Amino acid sequence: MTAPRFLMIDQAPTPVAPFSHAVETDGWLFVTGQMPTWPDDDAAPLPQGIAAQTQRVMDNLILVLEGSGYALADVVQVRAYLTDFQRDYAVMNETYRRYFPEGRLPARTCIGVTGLARDALVEIDLIARRAHDPSVQMGQGG
Fold first, then answer.
1. Domains in the chain, please, with CATH?
2. What confidence tens digit (pLDDT) does each residue in 7-47 have?
3. Lesser CB count within 10 Å: N end or C end of the chain?
4. How far is CA 74 from the centre of its chain?
C-alpha cells in the first residue's frame, strides 16, 4: 500500500473549508465534493438554477480529476447532494448524464439534504480508479 497523496489543484476552486481537493492512494482517487463556485473568482455569485450549477460542479470535478492525472472515464462512483430533491432531481440528472458516454455510467447515490455551503443547490463528490493495465497479469485464485 502506498502512502496517500493529499492533492490541492491550482486550477480548481479554492475549498470552502479545510480539506484537500482529492486524496490518492493505490490507484484510487477520492475527490472532495465540489460546489458550483468559479475557479477564478471564489466570491462570484453562484450560477442560477440547477442545470447551470450542476454543469459548474461537473466542470470543477473535471478540473480536479485532470489536475490529479485522472479523467471522467476513470470514475467508478458518484454521490450527488441536492437541497431541493423533488424540484431538481430530473434536471440535475439530465445535465449530469451529458458528461458520461452511453454504457459507462458510474455507480451513483443521490441524496436530498437540508443545506449546502454557499446556499448551493447541488454538490457532487466522486471516487475514481486508474484503468487496469492489461499488460500486468493478475494472479489466479487458488
1. 5-129 (3.30.1330.40)
2. 999 999 998 889 999 999 999 999 999 999 999 998 899 99
3. C
4. 11
